[in-house]
Amino acid sequence: xxxxxxxxxxxxxxxxxxxxxxxxxxxxxxxxxxxxxxxxxxxxxxxxxxxxxxxxxxxxxxxxxxxxxxxxxxxxxxxxxxxxxxxxxxxxxxxxxxxxxxxxxxxxxxxxxxxxxxxxxxxxxxxxxxxxxxxxxxxxxxxxxxxxxxxxxxxxxxxxxxxxxxxxxxxxxxxxxxxxxxxxxxxxxxxxxxxxxxxxxxxxxxxxxxxxxxxxxxxxxxxxxxxxxxxxxxxxxxxxxxxxxxxxxxxxxxxxxxxxxxxxxxxxxxxxxxxxxxxxxxxxxxxxxxxxxxxxxxxxxxxxxxxxxxxxxxxxxxxxxxxxxxxxxxxxxxxxxxxxxxxxxxxxxxxxxxxxxxxxxxxxxxxxxxxxxxxxxxxxxxxxxxxxxxxxxxxxxxxxxxxxxxxxxxxxxxxxxxxxxxxxxxxxxxxxxxxxxxxxxxxxxxxxxxxxxxxxxxxxxxxxxxxxxxxxxxxxxxxxxxxxxxxxxxxxxxxxxxxxxxxxxxxxxxxxxxxxxxxxxxxxxxxxxxxxxxxxxxxxxxxxxxxxxxxxxxxxxxxxxxxxxxxxx
Length: 569
Known about the structure:
With 569 residues, the protein is of the alpha+beta class. The protein has 16 helices and 24 strands. 30% of the residues lie in helices and 23% in strands. Strand 8 and strand 9 form a beta hairpin. The chain is globular, with a radius of gyration of 26 Å.
């Protein structure tokens, strides 16, 4: 048994009492303690997407096993579900806190209230929410961020409840892209050249001032999705991007230099200011029509050798985490590495890596290396295993070792069209027969409209490949790309009607009369132009009410055609 590692005999006794196989002793595998028996579903050789609903596999706890404490998970959506499953495996009762009453978009599919003892909806009063948590039958022992929307609330609740967290003093620097970069600059770390702008004119002037850094990147200040990050090669493109972002929810935009180099993502788990690197990913993008389309994300082996890219990146990221006040919990940081200038932070996100990345890394390096495992250990078990890992690294051990290599391949469609056959029907069987196939997510069906892939949002889906031989995984990823390029995955219809609401070619996003009729876009917050049009129509409508004779002639019959829900009527 490695020094410093103890076995939770009480939990093993609980497992035995429930009739669940419990290990007689931990098994050393070179990476830490591999818990057999009840935890095998997370082992690198056993874990699969079909086993993600861990809560149904875990036996119900008897009365004598009931804990007097609960773990609070704020916004347990998306990959935060992996944290929930890990906590359930450890026998922790859970309370969910939702930062907003509405769960929108992709987050809604991952929301499962049945695994929580209580669900509290935050109404804007941090003290009131903290009071509700205190008034429960069980005492909160930890507050954990489940996903991006809950980061600020989780830090505030942890601070009020005197629990481990990141505090609120630097919350603005962790939430706002502009202040994040300025904080790094103040701490003597490399940061992006940037300007904060409140108007389109200011954005254009800022781009001119940053002329030597062309091309530029225009983005919103808040972390609100890749759709609000735009690469611009001209001043006109800067104006268009700023107009689109300022017309939405943002009241300011940032004009930054475009960082040239290779993109990496570094996953970490922190405990009381000590940071452990739990994984490194390399991100590759391709140029599609002047825009950067997402290509793939792949695992990177760890290296602490002097002068290695991994060491340079990790040392820089750990300094950034400290500068931004990230002291406890999971994080993932996007970095651009340039051979001449070194690493530069794009953003540091104080929550668990999104999507399937944490589960994929667990399948490559083992359950003990998964962010969910390390996060649960740090926040609920006092960081016993994480502290041992940090000591081992201090004595020369690697932060992690990969038993498998993985590529998360973002699907790319090269043209626009309406699917005549689903992707699964066309290529599902041969993709699943690939030796490294692990999972696939592509929900496109017959009649769906597909757009040319420009970013992660416009991608039709992704495929995860995992295998012990990197050359085999790379070869099979190349086969999938070739199938996309040669039309073996996307079969388009000659029909122009789609069940996906999509504007006709003669229409813009705000509704324009044309030969195809009036396109009605999906409901969204009105832009300044829309508000002006609505105001004008209201005045015109009032005039018509007062003088019916002033109404215009009816449109010709040929124009009385509408696109409703994608069907011409």
